[in-house]
Q: What sequence folds into this?
């Protein structure tokens, strides 16, 4: 079973700043099948990034994903008010298709 | 409109059973694997199960294996999560989600329902 660890647990930044979120896997993620999701309070998650670096349909280009193997990063180039939310990574290369514990991005 | 709509949640006693449904619309349901993901109150996301597009293969989290069964009806565009021997730790919002890649179970979840709440308590 692949265990995902996300850091930091909470990231406090002002609007306009750059956010860098990390996701580390306990073993290599098959075919870099790593996704990132955003979840706003009271809402269902939405897909941001799949295949480690491909933006999902309709996702602004301020969101970017990078990494391979066991280390992955989600970058938000300039935080907009609607970006303050919780972000989860998920690996979907090997069952169980585990999620990380999440990183909360809040307003400083 | 492309959407997923879950139903069937509610309050159930420990040891009881519950059947969740997810109705899909706006896309070719039979071409995509489907998943269930849950979220306990104030906690993170937990993958529960995935079923292949034709229903012949299912994958389950260890925490629910032997208690939960996922099935689908490609004529009714519906996926079902049959839950039995429910425990307090199964209390969560249960989301239905579509795998974003045709014909494969190995895909990110590109469409989510709004979720249905399951509470296991006496």
A:
């Amino acid at each position: 079973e692949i265990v995902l660890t996300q850091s930091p647990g909470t990231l406090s930044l002002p609007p306009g700043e750059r956010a860098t979120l990390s996701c580390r896997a306990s073993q290599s993620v098959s075919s870099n099948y790593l996704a990132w999701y955003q979840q706003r309070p009271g809402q269902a998650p939405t897909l941001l990034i799949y295949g480690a670096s491909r933006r999902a349909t309709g996702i602004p280009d301020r969101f970017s994903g990078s990494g391979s193997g066991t280390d992955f990063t989600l970058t938000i180039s300039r935080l907009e008010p609607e970006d303050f939310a919780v972000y989860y990574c998920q690996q979907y290369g090997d069952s169980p298709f585990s999620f990380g514990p999440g990183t909360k991005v809040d307003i400083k | 409109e492309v959407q997923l709509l879950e139903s069937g949640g509610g309050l159930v006693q420990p040891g009881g059973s519950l059947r969740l449904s997810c109705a899909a619309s706006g896309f070719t349901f039979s071409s995509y694997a489907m998943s269930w993901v849950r979220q306990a109150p104030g906690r993170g996301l937990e993958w529960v199960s995935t079923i292949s597009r034709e229903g012949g293969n299912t994958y389950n989290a260890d925490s629910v294996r032997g208690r939960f069964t996922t099935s689908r009806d490609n004529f009714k565009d519906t996926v079902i999560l049959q839950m039995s021997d429910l425990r307090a730790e199964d209390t969560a919002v249960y989301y239905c989600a579509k795998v974003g890649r045709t014909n494969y179970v190995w895909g990110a979840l590109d469409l989510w329902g709004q979720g249905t709440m399951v509470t296991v308590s006496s």
